[in-house]
């Protein structure tokens, strides 16, 4: 699909969904007036992150006092089936991230309520749900419709049917999804951010999510090297964070 075709399909998709008009307005501003916003402070934060980054294994051991090896053994069949489904999917989206970090964050907090932004195939959703189902907990997910790809039917594609009773999926931008989620449940054990990559989008969401994280809860943000939003947020709130290097990117994680 050419870039012009993709943009046109996306715009038409927005026009068909009046409930997404607020996000369309934000997208237009972000891609015109605030075009540099996505990379604000990127060089500063990559240097900061590189200087303190540890492996996922080290982070889980340090924060949650467990080893990560059992996850791949205990859920080998589930993960293999999920990988096969991703491979067969005709629409390409983001692949699995630091699944052990998410799973053991839920185990550490005895999570019953988790919120995530960004779903795609549903790898992070799967990791959280494998833990939540032990306590009949609920995962609340925010994910924008895939307007240019006709890929909506594949959102959460790798999540098995037997886990979906513990999952509530909100198909709007974060600024519309999160208020709906917080109206349903106000306090969360684990927060996982992996959606709007812009500096302003992150700063807004980080502030909102942090308010709803319980004391002792775990905050996780993917791709913190895109700009300095995560670093600035942590410094503003005097938060001592762990940085995880995973497949060439950086993840931020801390316990509130």
Describe the overall structure.
This protein is of the alpha/beta class and 256 residues long. Helix content is 44%, strand content 17%. It has 11 helices and 8 strands. It has helices spanning 3-15, 21-30, 42-50, 56-64, 69-74, 76-88, 99-109, 123-132, 174-184, 199-211, 229-236; strands spanning 53-54, 113-117, 138-142, 167-170, 188-193, 213-221, 242-246, 249-255. The protein has an 8-stranded mixed sheet with strand order 1-7-8-6-5-2-3-4, with helices on both faces. α4 runs parallel beside α7 and α7 packs parallel to α8. It is globular, with a radius of gyration of 18 Å. The mean pLDDT is 91.
Q: Please state the CA-atom Rg, rounded to the nearest Å.
A: 18 Å
| Average pLDDT metric | 91
Order of helices and strands: HHHEHHHHEHEEHEHEHEE
How far apart are the first and last residues' alpha carbons, in Å? 43 Å
Bin the helical content.
40-55%
- In the sheet with the most strands, the strands line up as 1-7-8-6-5-2-3-4
Quaternary assembly: single chain
SSE inventory with pairings:
Blueprint: H1 3-15, H2 21-30, H3 42-50, E1 53-54, H4 56-64, H5 69-74, H6 76-88, H7 99-109, E2 113-117, H8 123-132, E3 138-142, E4 167-170, H9 174-184, E5 188-193, H10 199-211, E6 213-221, H11 229-236, E7 242-246, E8 249-255
Parallel strand pairs: 1-7, 2-3, 2-5, 3-4, 5-6
Antiparallel strand pairs: 6-8, 7-8
GO molecular function, one term: methyltransferase activity
Keywords: Methyltransferase, Transferase
InterPro entries: SAM-dependent_MTases_sf
């Amino acid at each position: 699909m050419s870039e012009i075709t993709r943009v046109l399909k996306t715009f038409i998709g927005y026009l068909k969904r009046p409930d997404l008009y607020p996000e369309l307005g934000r997208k237009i501003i972000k891609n015109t007036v605030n075009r540099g916003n996505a990379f604000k402070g990127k060089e500063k934060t990559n240097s900061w992150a590189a200087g303190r980054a540890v492996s996922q294994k080290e982070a889980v051991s340090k924060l949650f006092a467990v080893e990560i090896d059992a996850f791949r053994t205990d859920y080998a069949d589930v993960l293999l089936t999920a990988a096969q489904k991703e491979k067969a999917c005709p629409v390409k989206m983001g692949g699995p991230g630091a699944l052990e970090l998410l799973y053991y964050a839920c185990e550490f907090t005895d999570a019953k309520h988790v919120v995530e932004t960004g779903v795609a195939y549903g790898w992070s959703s799967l990791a959280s749900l494998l833990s939540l189902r032990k306590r009949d907990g609920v995962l609340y997910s925010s994910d924008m419709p895939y307007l240019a790809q006709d890929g909506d039917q594949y959102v959460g594609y790798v999540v098995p049917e037997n886990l979906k009773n513990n999952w509530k999926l909100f198909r709007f931008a974060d600024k519309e999804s999160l208020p709906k989620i917080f109206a349903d449940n106000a306090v969360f054990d684990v927060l996982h951010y992996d959606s709007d990559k812009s500096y302003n989008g992150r700063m807004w969401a980080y502030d909102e999510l942090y308010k709803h994280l319980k004391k002792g809860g775990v905050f996780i943000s993917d791709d913190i090297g895109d700009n300095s939003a995560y670093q600035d947020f942590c410094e503003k709130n005097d938060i001592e964070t762990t940085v995880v290097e995973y497949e060439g990117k950086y993840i931020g994680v801390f316990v509130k």
